[in-house]
Amino acid sequence: MKHQRGVALLLVLWVLALLSLLLGGLAGWVQLETRQAAWHRQHTQAALAAEAGVALAVQALADPVQRKQWVADGREVALVFDDAQLHVSLRSERGKLYLNSAEPADFARVALACGATQAQASRLAKDLETRRDQGVAPFRVVEELRQLPGMTQALYSRLVPQITLWSGLDRPDPAFASALMRKAMNLPQQSAVGADPGEILVISSRAERPGGYHARLHVTVLLSPAEGSAQPYRVLRWQE
After folding, report:
1. How far apart (Å, rounded) are the C-alpha atoms in residues 166 and 200?
2. What pTM value is reported for the model?
């Protein structure tokens, strides 16, 4: 009888330990899910605030008076949306190298400035020239640049901010070129204040919310895409 009671007690203790373990695991899982849901909610709110920054910039650009206060050379404008601090900047596509008509030598110079080796830059320039000689269709999306033989992810990431598919210019406009572009292409220093940035701009919006939550957007937009259009702009490229 005592032996049976001892076995029953051990069984009860084992069941209680198992239940405690299961309840502890369940409580930990619920806590983790709660934290993940809170993070997702806060991150979503930060992303929406960054989108609001893009919309505020477009709204300002549609106003002839406010537009003068925005210079498309990358300088930031501080804004507030709800409880988020926004840092919004514009960059004209005219200050970038137009990939579909750029001289291969110019492309090589920019690649070198972005960290490519001499051999790598020469190979990429040759690949670009070969592509044109073979009558391959022009680049339609920036991501096609990644497919050039010899292109690495690191170099591609540094090149992308310096190239465009939309300016149509033979050479970058010095007023809107980055410091890297001016040095690589030996462009003169010119002020972007008062210069015409064109209708295609990259709007960069960084949102910071209480608690350290943040989000960043880079959106290439075409302003006034068509007469009578219901939308004041058309998105050409969207990066989060």
Report:
1. 7
2. 0.81
89 and 102 part of one domain:
no
* Strand order from edge to edge, sheet including 84-92: 73-81, 84-92, 200-209, 213-223, 233-239
Q: Minimal CA–CA distance to 103: which of 192, 37, 171, 28? A: 171
Domain that holds residue 131: 97-185
In angstroms, the Cα distances linking 166 to 73, 140, 141, 171 are 17, 10, 10, 12
101 located within any domain: yes
- The pLDDT tens digits of the residues spanning 142-177 come to 999 998 888 999 999 999 999 999 999 999 999 999
How many domains, in total, are found in the chain? 2
Whether the CB-CB separation of 109 and 184 falls below 8 Å is answered with yes
Q: 76: which strand partners?
A: 89
User: Is 87 part of any domain?
Assistant: yes
